[in-house]
Design brief:
348 residues, alpha/beta, ten-stranded mixed beta sheet, 8 helices, 11% strand, flat
Length: 348
C-alpha cells in the first residue's frame, strides 16, 4: 500500500497549474490559499487514516484516536521523541518520507506494535535505532534516500535474530559501502540496495535470506571488479533470485567468462539451512495459532449454543409448570374430597 492518501493532494497540485474560470492563471497567493491547512481524515481500504502530507508542519499535531494510517510525508519534522507517536498505538501504516528527520529516539516506535509499513525515506537520519528492527508486525521498511544513514549502519549493533517479519527492505541511495549484517531474515522477499557505492559484494548476507525473490543492485557494483562479484552471482543463480542491474554487459563479457572457477562455500549452505529452519518454525507457529483460533472459535460457539439451549429448556419448563398449575386450579373437587368434608363436619 503506497501513499494511499496522496491522491487528493496530487489533485490539488494539478489544480494549482490550471486556469481559473475567468481565463486567468492562479497567483502564488491563491495557490497557497487553496492548499489544505490542517490534517484531514478519511477511510482507505476500510481503515481510518489521517492525511497531513505537504502542510509544512514541524511537529505532528494532536490527532484523532483510533487512526490506522498516518501520512505525514513532505513536512518539516526533524525529531521523533519517545512520546511523539505514543498516543497512536493502532497505527499500521506510517509515512514520514520527505521530512527533515535526523534524530529518532530509541523508543519512538516502541508503542506501535501493529505497525506494518514504515516509510522514513528521503530524510537526513544520523542514527538509526535497533528497536525499529524489533517491531513485531513490521513487514515493509523504507530507508532509501538517507545520505547519512551509512554512518549509523556501519557501527550499529543489531540484536539478532531481529523480531520484525520484514518482507521488503529498501536501503537504496544511502551511500552504503558495505552491506549491513541483519542476521537471519527468513521472510524477506525484496531487497533494494541500488544506487550505493558498494566496495564489496559478498554472498554471506544473502545466504540468510532464504525466501529472497529479488535484489536490486542497479548502479551499485560499478566499483567492484567483475570477478569479485561472481560468487554472489552464482549464489543468486543457484537459488533463483532475480537480481536487477542497470547494465548486464559486464556479466556477458569475456572477462567474466575468464574468471577463475569458484565453488560456493559450505558455510553459505549452512546459513541458508538455518534460515529455512527459522522460516519453517515461523510457519508452524502461525499454523498453530490459526488452529487454536479455529478450535477456540468452535468451542466458544459450542458453549454459546449450549447455554442458549439450557436457557430455552429452562423457559420451556417454567412455561409448562405455570400451565400445569393453572390446570390444577380449574379441576372441580372430587367425591373423596367431598366425603372428607362431611366426616369433618360430623366430628365437629
Amino acid at each position: 500500500m503506497f501513499k494511499m492518501f496522496k491522491f487528493n493532494y496530487y489533485v490539488v497540485l494539478v489544480l494549482l497549474f490550471t486556469k481559473s474560470n475567468n481565463g486567468k492563471e492562479m497567483t502564488d497567493i491563491e495557490a497557497l490559499a487553496s492548499l489544505p491547512t490542517r490534517c484531514t481524515y478519511e477511510y482507505a481500504y476500510e481503515m481510518y487514516g489521517a492525511h497531513c502530507a505537504g502542510l509544512r508542519l514541524s511537529k505532528i499535531p494532536s490527532l484523532r484516536g483510533g487512526i490506522e494510517i498516518l501520512d505525514f510525508s513532505d513536512n518539516k519534522l526533524q525529531e521523533l521523541h519517545a512520546d511523539t507517536l505514543s498516543s497512536y498505538t493502532s497505527i499500521k501504516y506510517l509515512y514520514l518520507a520527505e521530512n527533515q528527520i535526523y534524530s529518532i529516539d530509541k523508543d519512538a516506535f516502541t508503542y506501535l506494535t501493529y505497525l506494518q509499513t514504515l516509510d522514513l525515506s528521503k530524510n537526513v537520519i544520523l542514527e538509526l535505532s535497533d528497536s525499529i528492527f524489533q517491531l513485531p508486525s513490521l513487514r515493509k521498511l523504507y530507508l532509501n534516500g538517507n545520505p547519512l544513514l551509512h554512518l549509523s549502519l556501519n557501527g550499529m549493533e543489531i540484536t539478532k535474530p531481529i523480531k520484525a517479519p520484514l518482507e521488503l527492505l529498501d536501503l537504496s541511495d544511502c551511500k552504503i559501502k558495505t552491506l549491513p549484517d541483519f542476521g537471519v531474515l527468513p521472510q524477506l522477499l525484496l531487497y533494494n540496495i541500488s544506487h550505493n557505492p558498494l566496495i564489496s559484494f559478498d554472498p554471506s548476507p544473502f545466504s540468510s535470506m532464504c525466501k529472497l525473490a529479488k535484489v536490486d543492485v542497479t548502479e551499485s557494483l560499478d566499483k567492484i571488479k567483475v570477478c569479485d562479484m561472481k560468487l554472489t552471482i552464482m549464489w543468486f543463480q543457484e537459488k533463483r533470485v532475480y537480481f536487477q542491474l542497470g547494465d548486464y554487459t559486464r556479466l556477458n563479457s569475456r572477462e567474466y567468462e575468464n574468471c577463475r572457477k569458484m565453488e560456493l562455500p559450505e558455510s553459505l549452505n549452512i546459513s541458508y539451512h538455518n534460515c529455512r529452519m527459522a522460516y519453517t518454525e515461523i510457519q508452524s507457529i502461525q499454523t498453530s495459532r490459526k488452529t487454536w483460533l479455529t478450535i477456540g472459535g468452535g468451542l466458544a460457539g459450542f458453549l454459546v449454543g449450549f447455554v442458549l439451549l439450557l436457557y430455552i429448556m429452562h423457559r420451556h419448563n417454567v412455561a409448562q409448570t405455570k400451565k400445569t398449575t393453572k390446570e390444577v386450579k380449574k379441576v372441580p373437587p372430587t367425591e373423596n374430597s367431598t366425603a372428607t368434608e362431611v366426616l369433618l363436619n360430623d366430628v365437629a
